[in-house]
Design brief:
290 residues; alpha+beta; Glutaredoxin; 4-stranded mixed beta sheet; 8 strands
Length: 290
């Protein structure tokens, strides 16, 4: 009877090739995932401090910011935080406490709350929030100075833009905005805006409408106002960026890359290095794509 203990049977060449290919793919996928993690873990924190119904803020939202978020490489660099408060102020009500008055009237205040509620509901899903935000700002830009269109904006944002957050079960933005959660988010946006460094300066002109008695958009430039000019207020890793960097996606890309490299250089400076070694020159992850 022949013994069953023979020499090991050689694996067919095809199986060996498949095994090697699988290992290669696994290794490549691991490297890609590691590179993705390295990039996403060092994103530039983009703070967009704005207010609804502001044409300059809207221009950035549907212009350079939209283009940046549509660019796969740039989007990988951005950790976006939208803070909707702008030039609103807290005003006392005799015997009743206080309330917030927005530069463009109560519809602005309501839309500011909608945006903060949307960001809250989106959580970590930055793509869903920006889809909502872009939709809402496109509607606002299209409605500029049209009183009838502005009056309809809250309903249109709920009907058209809220589904961007969750198509099958859109969150109830109106309930959030009108309830305690919306009030808390508005207070947090107010505190975050007040903590800006350098601080923004509120300017009231004869054309402005800072009280809730008017729903008409201001005829003056808005956004975060300074004594000399107006602009949306954008920070990169906590540092205010110049208004010129918001004019186009190319200018915004350059500012993002500068902030990304600055952050990388700071981390390398703190890391232990061998004597005589020099830091490698920074190459922005988007540089090869453009």
């Amino acid at each position: 009877m022949a013994s069953s203990r023979g020499s090991p049977i050689a694996a067919p060449p095809l199986l060996l090739l498949l095994a090697v290919a699988a290992l290669t793919l696994t290794s490549t996928a691991g490297k890609v995932a590691a590179a993705h993690h390295a990039r996403s873990s060092s994103r530039v924190e983009v703070g967009f401090y704005m207010e609804a119904l502001c044409p300059f803020c809207g221009s950035f939202a549907v212009g350079a910011l939209k283009d940046a978020m549509a660019d796969d490489d740039l989007r990988e660099l951005i950790a976006l935080r939208v803070v909707c408060f702008g030039n609103a102020r807290r005003l006392p009500i005799p015997g009743k406490g206080s309330h917030y008055a927005c530069q463009h009237g109560p519809i602005e205040c309501l839309l500011n709350r909608y945006h903060q509620c949307a960001e809250h509901f989106a959580g970590d899903d930055a793509a869903a929030f920006f889809s909502y935000f872009e939709c809402a700002e496109q509607l606002a830009v299209a409605a500029e100075r049209d009183m009838h269109a502005i009056a309809l904006l809250p309903k249109r944002v709920v009907d058209k833009c809220a589904p961007e957050l969750a198509p099958d079960d859109p969150p109830d933005l109106a309930a959030c905005a009108g309830g305690p959660l919306g009030a808390r988010l508005q207070r947090e946006a107010a505190a975050e805006t007040a903590a800006l460094d350098p601080p923004h300066t509120y300017v009231v002109s004869r054309h402005s409408h800072p009280t809730p008695r008017s729903n008409h958009p201001s005829s003056t430039p808005c956004g975060i106002l300074t004594p000399t000019f107006a602009q949306p207020w954008v920070t990169l890793n906590g540092n205010k960026t110049d208004n010129a960097n918001l004019a186009s996606v190319d200018a915004f890309r350059d500012a993002l890359c500068e902030a990304w490299c600055s952050s990388r250089d700071e981390k390398e400076a703190k890391a232990p290095t061998q004597a005589g070694t020099q830091a490698s020159p920074c190459v922005c992850p988007t540089a090869h794509a453009h």
